[in-house]
Amino acid sequence: MESNKKYWKGLEEYKNTPDFVENNKNEFAEPLPIEDVLSEAGLSTVTPRRDFLKALGFGLGAVTLAACQKTPVHKSIPYLIRPEEVVPGIPNYYVSTFKGNPVLVKTVVGRPIKIEVNPNAGIFSTGTDAQAQASVLDLYDVSKLKNPLLKKEEKTLWSDVDAFVKGELNKAQASGKKIRIVSSSLNSPSAKAVVTDFAVKYPTTKHVQYDAVSYTGIIKANENSFGKAVLPKYNFDKADLIVSFAADFLGTWISGEEFTAQYVSNRNHKSLEKGKMSRHFQFETGMSLTGTNADTRVPIKLSEEGPALITLYNAITGNNLAGGALPNNVTADKALKLVAKELTQNKGKSLVVSGSNDVSTQILVNAINAAIGSYGATIDLDNPCKRYEGNDAEFAELLNEMNRGEVAAVFFLNSNPAYDSTKIEDFKSALSKVALKVSFSDRVDETSDLCDVVAITPNYLEAWGDANTYEGFYSIVQPTINPVFNSRQAEQSLLIWSDAAVQDYYQYVRNNWEATILPTVGKTWNDLLQSGVVNATAKTAGAYGFSMSLDAVATSIANSSKALAKGNGTDALELHIYESIPMRDGKYANNAFLQELPDPVSKVTWDNYLALSPKQAEKSGYKEFDVVTVKGENGYSIDLPVLIQPGQAMGTASVALGYGRSKVGKAGNNVGKNAFPFTSFSNGTLKYGTTVKISGTGMRDELAQTQTHYSFEGRNIIREATLKDYLKDPAAGSGNHHKHKVYDLWTTDKHEKLGNDWVMAIDLNACTGCGSCVVACNVENNIPVVGKDEVRRRREMHWLRIDRYYSFNDEKTGHDVTEEKEIAHMENLDNVSVVHQPMLCQHCDHAPCETVCPVLATVHSSDGLNHMAYNRCVGTRYCANNCPYKVRRFNWFNYWNDSRFDNYLNNEFTQLVLNPDVTTRSRGVMEKCSMCIQRIQAGKLTAKMEKRALKDGDIKMACQQACSANAIIFGDKNDPNSEVAKALKSERIYYVLEEINVQPGIGYMTKIRNIDSETKEVHA
Amino acid sequence: MSGHNESILREPLITGKNITYAQITDDILLPVENKPNRAWWIGFIISLCGATLWVVAVSYTFWFGIGAWGLNKTVGWAWDITGFVWWVGIGHAGTLISAVLLLFRQNWRNSINRSAEAMTIFAVICAATYVVSHMGRPWLAYWVLPLPNQFGSLWVNFNSPLVWDMFAISTYFSVSLLFWYTGLLPDIATIRDRAEGMRKKVYTVLSFGWTGNVKTWQRFEAVSLILAGISTPLVLSVHTIVSMDFATSVIPGWHTTIFPPYFVAGAIFSGFAMVLTLLLVARKVLGLENYITMFHIESMNKIIILTGSIVGVAYLTEFFIAWYSGSEYEQYAFINRSTGPYWWAYWMMMTCNVISPQLLWFKKIRTNIAATWILSIVVNIGMWFERFVIIVTSLHRDYLPSSWAMFYPTWVDVSVFVGSIGLFFTLFLLFLRVLPSIAIAEVKLLLKSASEQAKLELIKDGHLDKEQVAEYVESLDKFDSVKQEEYAKI
User: Fold this and answer.
1) Are A426 and A496 in a shared domain?
2) Which spans are transmembrane here (chain B) (predicted)?
3) Is A280 an 8 Å CB contact of chain B?
4) If you placed Cys at A881, which of A1002, B74, B76, B472 could pair as Cys (CB 3.0 to 4.6 Å)?
């Protein structure tokens, strides 16, 4: 209905005055000219033009402002043809070999990112060492050369290099001068064949093998004693009694991870459950990893090592060799008598090893081993170890040849004598007399810097090759990525330079295997690429008798011993030079993971130091971290900070090799000091001991240690028992007999774990403390490396650490003293026991970290895990404060994008090493062990895809799979048949800090020591 | 209020002769209505330098990360939370004076409540800056608030003492601010009435249209009482909750049920010390001796002895309980406090908080301005060390000896703390310039009954007991603002 009523808004409207009409028209001051614009005529009016300009001005301004923001351009190129088998998110695994140890390489979208164990490789399937774990980082090292260098010319072409080298080789050939290929021990059959072929083309060629840390002494001794110039195969698993004279066989000696697996098989929970545990005596100067694991460890001076062996020999055989007296070391004397007694009781089940590189000493060791029937039982000379074949004398002779000007060409393959030889300056001057100097190296290292040609080589992950670790045991090296830089394998270069028929090294390796190795075992090349190893039936190890006169040997030992014993015990000390566990001989010095791996004994990172015993430091007047000048007999001197090392023999000092690289890269340059020049060459082998004078500098240099308090203060976080007590009562020392009543506020609030319950058991008797789990964890979980300064500030990021505690046995009371204040009053600190305790997030069921987080960034899962949601974390750090285990780590800085942390991930190339399954954490965020949740998820997914239930062993933690000792057992507690569920039922299981009822998910098994009243008597 | 006579035995709350209401207004508004003097400028410039240092240090931390501080994997809190608790504690005196003493009708609070409340607000601001700046990702600080969000159903953790803390501090700040501002309204109106030009406009807005009629005053009184009622539990709750940041943890040395009362006592202790530190100077520089008298100073000193002794008993109780508990970790934590690497911090705390305040038992010392001022600073040093001892010495050696570590502060740690003091004083000095440092209206209430001149009138009237008068006159001895010769004649 329409209304005709009209309402006026006011009298003005009613009256319709002219004023009103005018005002009414202007009621809206400036009507929008929409109608005008829309009509065609509008375009010609004035207003749209001005509006257009306004709009234009605004638009221009807005666009300009918007353009100020630099929008990142992410190029993504889709696959045109998808590479076979490469699926983002699904890793591929390839067998390969690292340093003679078979491994499995995990690659993700074509990038090798992790080293795992090769399950087909027998003893090597138990674990890998820290170097293998860290080796993936070396592939992505920015310090490497991108092109070969010819006369230091960058962007050199390989064709120029080839022309130059061939020309020089032809000149050398024409002049009849010598050609030398210098390498560290080459255990690759194909590479050896290449060298042989090269020598055929250039007949003056000789292959000189030398190892920075040499085993020539053992090889020569075996040649002398048994006519076999080999490094034997040692079977620590067959030895019930192990006596080691300074051989760090669980660490650096020959093949640490392999010996660890053997050694632990007689000492772990499975062996203990059968009531069996080997006994281990260690006589050594510095505290080695092996020494920390020994049941009885006796500190002896370097100069006492020879006399000790003579004493032992005399005691076992009843002979009376001269020089077997230890007048100043009653403890060692008593220990040797006990050892002799036990060795005679355990004939055929014992093993005596010595870390010495002295031929005479090793001959004596051979005599002892023959006397106790080790050959054919614990020592196998018929399937020898091929890891080390170096000959110190040949390298010494090379220096003479070069000095005499007889050498026209020298090739350095996997060797760096300008850093790791005895007389570096002599080597350099001798080298300058050689016309053609070629280095096969991936960077300009100390030796390459002196060479005309640096023929850059790929990382082992980019290369073909093979290895022959033991007689009859072969493994393959296969590339997992195309060479990133313009590198070429040394073998291929040699093939090209010798105009070989087959110049492609892949083809060469394959031909070599198909011709020699594969037919003997009836396998094909493809089988090999899948399994990675070929294991021919081992020969039966023969028993060898020893029937030579030892008089000359004893005289030689006595002389060397006398030469060492010149120290006065205050400022002149015997210097023990050893290979450090993280750094080894220094080849991997640019690997930030290894630099930041704490030494298992001293917990020092990023440095070497002079280790002195507490009493020695007191006597010489030095405090910890005082910088002292160490001057060798040959005049070489370096300044090192002092580290107080319990267990170090009085009158001695220890220094680690592998540090002090000057040309290795950002991470490793000038870290620590080079100790190689302290070594000396005498009687045909290198000697790793000398006498030094130390003097104070008045300076102080704090070492970067990840642990500074060394005693466990009598707390029951460490629980241990003697084997005797354990055999009587498996729960001995575990505290399981008198448990306290648990008072719980939340008795009605139980969270059922219906699916899985992920837990761990850690066998303290198996863990040797080597640290390969730490590196494995770092690599797997993208854990930042923080550098020396930050470690010094106690900010290392390791999710998994190994706590090392010392305790001292009081000879008067026979009790273990573990409290710092009491230790300070002790007279004798030589009788030190060590325990290693891997410590990581305990995934407590009553986690104290979870209740205090204000934003619920850390919460519990229904399968027993303590989750950490990085994205939710605001960084109050309360969780870390409230963690009784102190396993939470805070990102103090943006480690992967901060120029101050340049030695790690601060570039795009190195970032390729990151595991894409684990996010990187930003600054201000807490992180910690996630129990490799990405591995748990992957395992669950695989089982789901295969439509089956998860099996025990489907999922392995990164730390677990790296552990050669199998000390870490992970699994589902809800599965009664799982290995971990069984292990957790052991009477030895205890939970650290269980009394505060945080209900940790990781059970530890007590440390068992095979000691008794007789071994205690040694130190009394 | 007025209209009845106060007992002659009570000491006067306002001294001086011929004090009128106008005189009070003039005296108190002197710094507000005039150009600042040299002393103010010197203080202000120094404080501003401190505040600038704070800005630099906090910006540095924000830019590089918390790594700029000396914290490590073992000691995750140190100077930051020490500073936070210290400032929150200092704030407590203001609330106690304004709320609790109002409810208990302690009229002497009228002269000091304004400054004390201002101090509370500035101290809580300083504390709050620590709450944000100690976070690893401070730009996400709002995540600890239970805000509706788009992260799914993400909520805060109501189990976490840090969330309680957030509630406690924000409530405390808002209530304190409200209480303070409500009390300011009549005084702002006074300034407004006397001001001209731009200042008048500003103070007009700030006075919320205060008219001063009876109804307004009645409502004002009612609101003050209600706010006092709300604030009173906060005196206890805020520091109780702050103490639970530690008490609910599992760390030996933190996990202690004694913390709530012990922290509250400590807070009042340090708060009164800070009030004294500030007012002893302000009183002199601003010429307010007649309003903040020796009676006030002595009263506050008495509270300091009381609370200091409570704190001392708490320290000893902690040791007793550590021994009595039989828990080796607990025992070690306390032995380590007193004899470990940080023994000096512990003994610093013991000396400053327990031993030196006992000097105040001597009347000569507690009525001596210089001694009181020095002791007030000593107490605040001691209270800083108390928090440092609790936080750092408990954390640095807890359960597993492998992780034991030392904490060394960096320049940034020191600058943030020193800077926060600068910030505090900058705010306080600005406050003195723009708002009356004594509650004018409330002081005027006392003039007719509790002032020296009113009592003198009573004495002159002569209806009083002679002994009581003599006692009163004797009590005036200690007053530095009372002319004794006046009484000699009587």
Assistant:
1) yes
2) 39-64, 84-104, 116-142, 162-184, 222-242, 262-282, 303-324, 344-362, 369-394, 414-435
3) no
4) B76
